[in-house]
Specification:
By secondary structure, the chain is mainly α. The protein has one domain. 56% of the residues lie in helices and 0% in strands. Helix 1 packs across helix 2 (27-54). It starts with 9 loop residues before the first helix and ends in a 7-residue tail after the last helix.
Length: 80
């Protein structure tokens, strides 16, 4: 484990202390867990984006079926 020093405004520090106490952990551990969770979620999101953009595009129409026109796609007759 590495020790770091951070600066928080009073409101953020109070919020963090309360939430750490509710979980019965030290403020240091609480902040560390928040950062670790954020890092994990960020990595998971980046991996999902990488998988999505590397996958092959699947066209969902039958052979010979015509594409919709721009006007058909953006028709808002129900709003007129």
């Amino acid at each position: 484990m590495k020790n770091v020093t951070i600066t928080l405004d009073a409101e953020t520090a109070a919020w963090a202390r309360v939430h750490a106490a509710q979980r019965n952990v030290s403020l240091s551990r609480f902040v560390g867990e928040l950062l670790h969770q954020h890092m994990r979620e960020s990595r998971d999101y980046e991996e999902a984006m990488r998988r999505y953009f590397s996958s092959k595009l699947v066209i969902r129409r039958r052979p010979g079926e015509r594409r919709a026109t721009r006007e058909e796609l953006h028709d808002r007759s129900g709003l007129r």
